[in-house]
Amino acid sequence: MTGVTIGSTLRRPHVWLPGTGTPPLLLLHGTGGDEHDLVPLREHLAPGAPMLSPRGTVSENGMPRFFRRSGEGVFDEDDLRARVDELAEFLAAAEAAYGVAAGSWFAAGFSNGANIASALLFRRPEALAGAVLMAGMVPFRDGPDPAADLTGKRVAVVNGRRDPMATAARTATLVAQLRERGAEVEQFPHDGGHGIDPAGLPLVRAYLGG
Fold it and tell me: Which of 115, 151, 152, 210 would you label with 125, given CA atoms 20 to 30 Å apart?
């Protein structure tokens, strides 16, 4: 099912695919992508699992994004916080509409999608069970809210060693912030740049229990 559904918080383009596998996936595209871009990842990460893939609500020169930025790697953090809350409301509406247990989503995000996934974990941790962050960066310059409790959340960080944006230093900071808040973090580095490494997907699938 694609597109507008009943309920104001579900009035954003999205793809929903029901399923019986686990965990339910929340797919979050990168800049310039849309709700269809990452749909094929379901069969690589959690075949047959329920899957929700929304489109970002911000446009940057016609390219969909999940939140605004003022430059490469420079996030509008006020907008990021607002968009995180918007996404959390969308997820709650989707749970009610599609019969998904509250907070059971496992986000799989690429680039901009990974960044809003980590921001969602830090700001609204009750919304997710965990995340796969591909080419992800630190979402908040001053770090997450000290009260953020990620105990029991499982996070896979899948960044390239040659990524000019999600550098080794930035990746280390992100991992440290997640662990400091109690998340169980596994790293799956690859030798590529700012992209998704197909060869590493079986490792992530095994991590998810697929």
Answer: 210
